[in-house]
Amino acid sequence: MSGSIYGNLFKISTWGESHGKGIGVVVDGCPAGLTLTEEMIQVYLNRRRPGQTKYATPRKECDQVEILSGVFEQKTTGTPISLVVMNTNQHSGDYSEIANYYRPGHADYTYDEKYGFRDYRGGGRSSGRETIGRVAAGAVAMAILNQLGINVCAYTKSIGDISIDYKNCNKENILLSPLAMPDLQASMAAQALLDLKMQELDSVGGVIECIVSGMPTGIGEPVFDKLDANLAKAILSIGAVKGIEFGSGFQSSQMSGSDNNDNFRLDNEGKVRKLTNHAGGVLGGISDGTEIIFRASVKPTPSIAKTQDTINKSGENIKVNIKGRHDPIIVPRGVVVVEAMTAVTIVDMLFMSMTSRIDNIKKFFGH
Amino acid sequence: MSGSIYGNLFKISTWGESHGKGIGVVVDGCPAGLTLTEEMIQVYLNRRRPGQTKYATPRKECDQVEILSGVFEQKTTGTPISLVVMNTNQHSGDYSEIANYYRPGHADYTYDEKYGFRDYRGGGRSSGRETIGRVAAGAVAMAILNQLGINVCAYTKSIGDISIDYKNCNKENILLSPLAMPDLQASMAAQALLDLKMQELDSVGGVIECIVSGMPTGIGEPVFDKLDANLAKAILSIGAVKGIEFGSGFQSSQMSGSDNNDNFRLDNEGKVRKLTNHAGGVLGGISDGTEIIFRASVKPTPSIAKTQDTINKSGENIKVNIKGRHDPIIVPRGVVVVEAMTAVTIVDMLFMSMTSRIDNIKKFFGH
Amino acid sequence: MSGSIYGNLFKISTWGESHGKGIGVVVDGCPAGLTLTEEMIQVYLNRRRPGQTKYATPRKECDQVEILSGVFEQKTTGTPISLVVMNTNQHSGDYSEIANYYRPGHADYTYDEKYGFRDYRGGGRSSGRETIGRVAAGAVAMAILNQLGINVCAYTKSIGDISIDYKNCNKENILLSPLAMPDLQASMAAQALLDLKMQELDSVGGVIECIVSGMPTGIGEPVFDKLDANLAKAILSIGAVKGIEFGSGFQSSQMSGSDNNDNFRLDNEGKVRKLTNHAGGVLGGISDGTEIIFRASVKPTPSIAKTQDTINKSGENIKVNIKGRHDPIIVPRGVVVVEAMTAVTIVDMLFMSMTSRIDNIKKFFGH
Amino acid sequence: MSGSIYGNLFKISTWGESHGKGIGVVVDGCPAGLTLTEEMIQVYLNRRRPGQTKYATPRKECDQVEILSGVFEQKTTGTPISLVVMNTNQHSGDYSEIANYYRPGHADYTYDEKYGFRDYRGGGRSSGRETIGRVAAGAVAMAILNQLGINVCAYTKSIGDISIDYKNCNKENILLSPLAMPDLQASMAAQALLDLKMQELDSVGGVIECIVSGMPTGIGEPVFDKLDANLAKAILSIGAVKGIEFGSGFQSSQMSGSDNNDNFRLDNEGKVRKLTNHAGGVLGGISDGTEIIFRASVKPTPSIAKTQDTINKSGENIKVNIKGRHDPIIVPRGVVVVEAMTAVTIVDMLFMSMTSRIDNIKKFFGH
């Protein structure tokens, strides 16, 4: 079974390799009547496009999205939405050398083991360009969430050992920093760190934090399709992500129950509030109405120019320097991908929650 | 949609609440011809049974499993396997008080919000007893993995700030420690910490580490059904788990690429080896043939006797002391649940991988 | 993969063999707040129980259903509902002879080929008793449909060449006839035909017609999860069913378009009506608001006492007379199974339709 | 939920409307290493292209397929295969009038009811052009089946009351008849019938028969994912299909068990044979190794030039003559679609069957 389809009710089916003709996604299950244009989607795709900063590889990619189906007079019809970005800037020659060896930290070896061979050009399906389909689908999901007052906002929380504190998630600040780090002072320190890494022909990792606000309560389907469980799958499916934690996460393993429990209070208007949010907005796998907060750990870019030991397909131990310009950091480009996968998952789970109570179902059908 | 069914080819459908008549699981997709007995399953269930140590609540539960279908003359028939544990020791009276308020850190509030009401007795479906179904299914999965030389081994890596180093995962050592901590010195220190927490009417969290050995390469289905992504969902679906990381995990966010990359080497027999395993056995979402290693972060037990602030259903702010005996730690009981969910996921993914190559399919059907 | 789980949002997971310990189903996805009792389910199970007429085999089966989870104070909790009927009247001795040969028309041969062996007692999982799980789940689905004013009614339309015309589907008439044939005169003629078949040590087939009234429009998910496509799968999955047709069905293959098209008219109240219903209530795979009508063709009972040619497991051509009392007709027992599978499918499809329009979703979440 | 994704292990995700930019499909789960070219797919697409006979509407469509991903150096990579046919010959002007009324027999009404509005041009997603995606995916499935010696062959069995007897399914004969009717004499008689219908400004229906040869035994997953149940869903999902029957189908409802049962015999080489094939190659939902035979009933083309009663969107009863050239028969164009959906389903079910026995799994993984 291939695993390029994600979702239960809001399904996305992605396709495309780094050096194939194009990359895209089919969104199946988007409700009818939603305003959707290519511009709305392009905004998100532009946030993943390299070349904006000196820390991204200069392969210029236009990545213009086209809507091929599912929209009529700028409204979704309820039928599948096919989104395509044609590959216009691919040089197969750049990559022919790596056809013969396995780059450390990349999926070259595992794809060969799985399929018997691989499209070696640029990483094929394991390339970061595969995220184009995810981000395009995420744009559609965001359009739905906007209708429901739900906001998804991710940013770079740390690069290497330079970390920032959580503040109001302000989209403008995130866009001002070339590293998607809303603390501009830390952003500059991180830039210095990256310059150093580039000199060393090396790379570094980081952490992306994501906050979802405006969630209704009751979203999540115990015991297996819990909200945090599905978000974990969605985020871990993003290349280079090696960990995820919700709320106080790994820190809670060292806390006492009295400190980690979030206490409930009723405010003056009789609305239920929590004094803290160590739960990260999810209790028993179901949203509790407060902000959902999680962090994803991103490993350092595997492609580095530094000399590395590896093996080639002829069965020899060799040393390689992977040619070409390399991003010293993946994190800033992953921010919009984390938002996209989160949005897609939240929409799917909102849809799943609609059948929890017989009263709601009766009301829906006019009884 | 309810989310009590897990898996694509090896599916488990769990049911049962803490104070209902019983708890169980239906395993659909277990291949025919596998030896399976109630004793084989009981071994795993016994590992989750409280009362073995002074750190677990003394509700005596016999939890004897019964096979109701899918096995004939001690061999699986390929038809669904229904496993049941009848609840014999439930006192509804113990819990009637909590019907009227929301225990902090528990799913009482979110279940009420989702369904409109809840079975308040003992936590209903959000109770830890729900894991009986998972563990029983895990036993079936383990029986399959044993046939394939794959071993799943989890243990307590840390309790509070007492942590141990990874050594050979030796099942006997784990069973010797009442806390499933294979470093017996650390186990005693942790016991002292727990005694302190009990005196304080409080609790503490911990981390469970899990190691899968004997994995073939090529298991995992990019881009969404990656091996680590599916394991993340499976583990995060376990109650009280708030984070997961693979290999160097969150630490890799602060490492350089040259340090974090695992280099490939061919050994004397020409077999592919890695010098390190920061990847945790998964590259590009696919197994690379080395050990899969991940850690799950478990929050401290929410139920504590200490006074806490919360609200009741009549809309008042109140203070509560949750009556009854409480486990100061969930982690040791969660170890077998982590193994179970890992085993179930690995089996499902092994099955999914069988159709990756046309050559294998032709051979399978005799062409 | 085993195929004992059915549904997308309203999922049923059946288990159990003819001579195992019990037979049951887990219903996952039933909304919370629905009144559900064992009596409500027993009503449906009683309609499949043999021994009521002289045309059904006299194995007395009590088939009392028990609710093991998912209901609290007579209301569904939204958690999985486990329903069980324990087997109390199974004689393994009755069937030992057929362990060694393949009964014509039965699944003995194909189960052996698929799994390598089979539970030969009474047909194992291929036995008609497997329908207990389906009917129990159907009862839950019916409870939901009752809340929505949707009625599912099936009856025997023909036995052999004795056929009746469609009239008002009146449940009382159906229950008056021991053959579930609401035309009592035809019912008596059919009884005579069956007496003849029993004398001949033979059997005969028939057709079940099913009518769903009160359907809202717009139910069905093109292009693959069309309403009629999913009903076809559900009904063809019932043992002994070899065909299905909707509306004018196979007859439409010989009609002209002008005759087969249903014309739309607005009645005095401005409501949309159709002058005919050759479509059987489904247009383009979506309900059109009129009655859904379909017919399922049921083959004659394979187990007959008449001498037949077959082969045994030792590789010899033999002649057999299958011992025991045999039903000369399956159809009357299949009527409630058709209703059950129809109800389960309709509920699932109603749930799936709730996300068709962004307006409805916004309204649902209070926007 | 939208229903444009079909399959469990071999999944197809179709998209596209009659007058959108294009129509296509993403095939997810095709194993790696299969030879696949655009020419191989074009052969199947050409069989659905109108304009070949005088009985098909003269809208010239080039329908050239393009492979956008999933193939490298003419071999499938195991990654998703995106196939596209761009729409080049669509005139929106042709259809503007039907925006305001509901064509009888078409899905105009039901799509409006479901989504609130519809892309009225040419039927939008309910148009026959939607089958392009299915047929392209079917070509990929056929390539797999060819590797396994399995052959799928469909043809026109009847048009109106002109029916033919089943003979060897010879692909050449089918291609010789413009109506895909391998009995050339009957084909001519049917042509005369169609000429008459065109004069009458009317249409007629027919039946497509499909035969699958070379099936292994043991394919099918009781109790819900039976081989015939899944084929029924696949075929009923094709527009205009209103019924399906396997083997003796509806006829068996009037047969006796002694006549309808297929008796097993061992031939001279000790191979299991059946003397008849009333079961249509499926017993208990599992393939028995003989030919799978089923028939699909296709209703007459709804679009006729004859005057019909209907209603318009302003709430008035009107009379219409649907303008334009209309096919008097859908059946010949449906033949390749039936083959495609059958091939896709058979591949999916072959994959599902690979995990039926623990022995096969152990052998697969080298144990």
From TrEMBL, chains A, B, C, D:
Reactions it catalyzes: 5-O-(1-carboxyvinyl)-3-phosphoshikimate = chorismate + phosphate
Organism: Anaerocolumna sedimenticola
Residues annotated to bind FMN: 125-127, 284, 299-303, 325
Cofactor(s) in the UniProt record: FMNH2
Summary of subunit composition and partner proteins: Homotetramer.
Protein name: Chorismate synthase
GO biological process: one example: chorismate biosynthetic process
Gene this chain is encoded by: aroC
EC number: 4.2.3.5
Keywords carried by this UniProt record: Amino-acid biosynthesis, Aromatic amino acid biosynthesis, FAD, Flavoprotein, FMN, Lyase, NADP
InterPro entries: Chorismate_synth, Chorismate_synth_AroC_sf, Chorismate_synthase_CS
CDD domains: Chorismate_synthase
Pfam families reported for this sequence: Chorismate_synt
Organism superkingdom: Bacteria
Enzyme class per UniProt: lyase
